[in-house]
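(Structure overview)
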Amino acid sequence: MSNLPEIPGMGALPYDGGVAFRLWAPHADEVWVTGDFIEWATPGSPLASEGNGNWYAAVPEARAGQEYKFVIRNGDRTLPRVDPYARQVTNSVGNGVIYDHGAFDWQGDDYHLPGHHELVIYELHIGSFYTRSEDEVGTLELAMSKFDHLVRLGVNVIQVMPVAEFAGDYSWGYNPAHVFAVESAYGGPDAFKTFVREAHKKGLGVVLDVVYNHFGPSDLDLWQFDGWSENDKGGIYFYNDDRSSTPWGDTRPDYGREEVRRFIHDNAMMWLHDYHVDGLRFDMTPYIRSVDASGMDLPEGWDLMRWINLSVREQFPGRITIAEDMHQDPMVSQAGVGGAAFHAQWDSAFVHPVREAVIAEQDEWRSMASIAEAVTTCYNDDAFQRVIYTESHDEVANGQARVPYEIDEGDATGWYAQKRSTLGAALALTSPGIPMLFQGQEFLQGGWFRDDVPLHWEQDSEFRGVVRLYRDLIRLRRNLDGTTRGLTGHHVNVFHADEESNVFAFHRWADGGPDDDTVVVVNLSANPYEHYRIGMPHQGRWGLRLNSDSRAYSQDFGDAAAYDLDAWDEDADGLEAHVSLSIAPYTVLVYSLIST
């Protein structure tokens, strides 16, 4: 064995002539590796201690594709264990599979994520996004068959809910059993690489949801991994005191232990390097920085997130990291001293008031002041440090439902549900921030999110007009027609917020001028208005870019007339000019400056 190479890294490491194995097990007395390459002989091929808690051996007989397992002796206990760094597993309670990341053909993939001001995200869950029957789990291959739908819709980033191997075949994914392996029921590592490669060919970036606030808790070989623990807790990978407790299990990783920090850091870098993903969305970061999500009593967790995010900024410029923090803390997306250095964060300041406004049964229950705050919230003077939405996997489950269903449970595809759910989406797609949709939102998916209930894809055709409304809003948001550049800009001014009429208007701009200055007018009431006077930022001709009451979007809509407008020299709402317009109930009008 002394003539065999020393290969850097952890886990199963293929090289030209065999496979090396390295395992961290500081309390082990002996370690072996067994598998197909020695016909599962016991205890297996011995690993030698490297004197730092790691054990190592190079095994010439081993090859990629073969199954394997480590065997640890601690005193009189013999512990078979799946490799914590296993890049592939047969299933969550099976064996590791030796996997060679270098063998995949990326076919020259060189995709680059657009600027954050241009992003429109579509969150999806592989297991339920698309299936051929009600009783099967969705796969990465099946999800790929709907890429053309996403391209037509106009989104340019897919945010995939967690794909790390979890217990069973059905799950949201937030119970990772093997964080380096892609869920076997979804198709495994090559399937995910193919998914990313083919998404890139279609102009779609891929952001992956990762879970570092806890592991498991079930099917978790990391638990008391090498036989050591304190207080009957989780052992070397976990806190062994009251810091271990999370809402999802007693399995919070020990962010203060160097080997665990490296394990998590290596995992984040793997997805970016070996899977070419364009970003990472961190699940529930408050439980990484705090035991109970209320403060900062786990500074080592905050420091770990900063280390990962700074590594991404340095090694993978152009990629994005997003925090689900929900505490409106600017330091989460601050790269300077003391910040966690995420590029953006999910924004509770938007989703909660906007959902409340569109779901409220009575018009008098809606608050224009709350909507104004939702539209104008900004972190660190950067409009695109927040992700804004009305639906996400969290907002449409756990006691809540899809917005159309919340609006009218008895008729979740009727006039009220169509009108007010699309009004909320329009606010998300025209306000400052990175907008996000949740799978099926564009065709009025009802009920609530469940991992074993696939989307009702027949509604894509049945409500193709509503899908068109989403598509047209996304075209405006991305300025694909060159007339609404302001929606990609940092600037916003809410200049009209009438609590009595429930009419709300704001101005967006990048640099200002024709095809840049954009005004969004929203009627959050059941009343139509004619000759309604609002201010305008500039005199001149303003082109109507969208009227959400158009019958092109639904035969149930009123098709109320709306036209281009001339803004005249008489101030209103503190602006230099004004217009008189008509707007239908629960309708959004989008105008942009044509000429002054």
Notes: The chain has three domains: 11-103, 119-477, 485-595. Residues 237 and 257 are 8 Å apart (CA to CA). Residues 11-103 form a domain with the Immunoglobulin-like fold (CATH 2.60.40.10).
